[in-house]
Amino acid sequence: MAYTRTVTEPASPRPTPGRADGIRARNRAGIEAELRAAARRQLAEVGPAALSLRAVARDMGMVPSALFRYVSGRDELLTLLIVEAYTSLADAVDEAHDAVDPADLHGRWAALATSMRAWALANPHEWALLFGSPVPTYQAPSEQTTDPGTRVSRLLLAIGRDAALRGVAGSAPFGPATRAADLAAAATANLISEPDVTSSGMSAVTLANGLATWAMLVGAVSSEVFEQFGPQTIANHEAFFTYQVAIGESLLFGRG
Question: What superfamily does domain 86-253 belong to in CATH?
Fold first, then answer.
């Protein structure tokens, strides 16, 4: 009698729900990363005001409707780019700042300022998105952008707080002192009662000096990124930026 053996091929394992979800999550993360990369390319070509999902989809080889699985529209895509840019900037500044001895207040300020400029020069389109002209009809959602968007300025506040605690914060940079104090008090009325400020003993003048330093830093970097000074005006941008950092240092810590 002939004997026939039936061989049964093992069934392919079915993905468990958890494994399937993991695959989908990885695929989604990859497409979202590709989406942000394509949006950054469009940002460099046309600027934030002209950014469109249609152009981004074309760059990705997808139909525009497919992108609505990942973003609700142009505004959400802009928000993703803004948060990503703020985070990248803050990470770069943190890395430079954290490499300095915490006791070296002057070095910490210089690291913050120079790393911010270096990031901006390496990422001019992202800098323009963060600090350039507002995008018409777009309103950044504060619940998503405030925290990453204030990381660097909060770091500067921490340097100012440490200077105040050590008694080396700069005084009024102009006189009479009463006028400087009155102007500083009026300018900082909304911030002077913040816990981080009151716990350090920072005066209104110290806080105003820090805000002026921040405004000057953003302006200094923007003037270079946006080429607001031509070669006939500024012969050496590195020297001019160093000069402005030194002015900021005198505001933060005085001339001693």
Answer: Tetracycline Repressor, domain 2 (1.10.357.10)
